[in-house]
Amino acid sequence: MVAGFPEQGLWHLTASQDHEYVGVKKSVFKNTRVFIKVKCDPLDPNPDNDLIIKISWLVRKTPCWNDYIFSQATEERYMQYFYDNPGRTQNTSKFDTGYLKNLPVSYPCDHNIILKPLDMDKVIMENNEGAKATRAVAEAGGQPLKENEDKLLSEEEEKAPPVVASTEAAVQIGFPPNNGPEGPRTRHPVMNIPNDGVYLLVVHTTSTSMGTGINLSYTAEVTIEMESDYGYLSAVDWPLLGFYAAMCGVYLIYGVAWLVMSALRWRELLRVQYWIGAVIFLGMLEKAVFTAEYSSLNKRGYSVSGLIVFAELVSCAKRTLARMLVIIVSLGFGIVKPRLGVVLHRVVGVGLLYFILASIEGCTRALQSRVDPQRQVLLASLPLSLLESAICFWIFSALVQTTRTLRLRRNLVKLSLYRHFTNTLAFAVLASVVFMLWSITYHEFEDCLRDWKELWVDDAYWHVLFAIILLVIMILWRPSNNNQRFAFTPLLDDGSDADDEEESEKLMADISDTMKYRNTKGSTSSSPRESRSVEEDLKWVEENIPSSLADNALPILDSDEEILTTKFEFSKMQ
């Protein structure tokens, strides 16, 4: 499972006369190279009007991960807002921002507009004054943008007079100096990002006619690339590439070890051990798909269509199979009961429902960016959370019943196995609750999330926890020479198992046939063959059943009248 759609490294955005502001947000490493290319197409059919397009761009840095949280519906308005007010912040946190704003440059409208490198003589810069203005507005009782975005996006802001930057000012803010523009090249970055951080890049395009000066209609495809020394992956998603590759190796070791142990003991394998092998296979497939997705994104700059969804569906299938495995083990399948009977239909139904809800929640989460509002994800995760709670209650209730049965049977080997299994599940539940509380406290309720480089742990933790629980289950149910110690063994005094229902039905049928036979015959005489058979049965009982056991069992068969007679005889003896 992933916390959100990975940040891309290559974007193709569309600008026009009605949509002049386009931009992207990304967490990047130091020395990340930024490339901007524009393909312009005039919509005016008059060839005499030579269309000129003016392009300017803004790079804004913030230390807060959640400073760029906005939905797609308001994305363009936010881009325009930050372009006009780059020093303003969305919350009242006391942090400073830095930005570079390139002055507009005119280009002829064609398909080969490659923006030149940064020219420090054509840069507007403001050093942290916007942050101070934001705090002044908040202290005066104003609403921050995050709380009342419509009001602040519609009002006109008073902007301080811009300062034309010098090389010294650029170094103070953190952007590297540049010696001036160079000639256009096929592939040359407009700038290099100086430090690690969360950046916003906004590109503004306007059009005009060379002859008349009137704004003309146009469409422009803006291609933006952000590539670091490590590739196209963002600073938040980069650790996940190595993590998924390592987890793929872990599951490969799991699979090879389980396959070898199963091959050596293939005659004595339990049905539960086949389920464990299936979970290992799905886990290995899931990690391989995630590794392929992040590796492709790092090399190409964009995600393969549908690959992240396929990876999430495989993850949902793995989690579904794992929960069904835990349920049937908790019910004692193959250990206390040879068959689940009607309960099997409930297990399959719960598994199918869980897969559907998990797929909806997982795809909704995986297709949204980490910085997008999570309302849809919360709505999708609510029914899944309720089902998870019900499954957890069912598992522990079944474990209590199974351990009670094993305690009554005094089967110490199986009882020890289930005690370790119960402790493992209790640890998993406790670890999950503790981590969720920590993540919500430090990642969701922070006005300014500065530890954004640790967000990948939100993804990695659940995979590591699942792998640990799976390893413990593999150790407990590993194939060995003593596999049959954990297999189902029927007991004479146990009538609660599912398979005993058939035996009870056969017994009742035999009794019914016997009663019918006695009613039809109505005679106490028996043939010599029958009497001989009865004598052989009695002889077998005397030879094979101890007398002490028979004596202890006889009082159970006494009627109430015989018990009263016995008590009366005892009283006469006294």
From TrEMBL:
Any GO BP: retrograde transport, endosome to Golgi
Domain TMEM87A/B GOLD: 6-114
Membrane-protein topology: Multi-pass membrane protein
Gene Ontology cellular-component annotations: cytosol; Golgi membrane
Pfam families with a match to the protein in the record: GOST_TM (PF06814), TMEM87A-B_GOLD (PF21901)
Keywords per UniProt: Glycoprotein, Golgi apparatus, Membrane, Signal, Transmembrane, Transmembrane helix
Spans traversing the lipid bilayer: 238-260, 272-290, 320-336, 343-360, 380-400, 421-440, 460-477
Protein origin, superkingdom: Eukaryota
Classification via InterPro entries: GOST_TM, GPR107/GPR108-like, TMEM87A/B_GOLD
GOST seven transmembrane domain: residues covered: 239-484
Location relative to the cell: Golgi apparatus membrane
UniProt record similarity statement: Belongs to the LU7TM family. TMEM87 subfamily.
Protein name: Transmembrane protein 87A
Organism listed in the record: Petrolisthes manimaculis
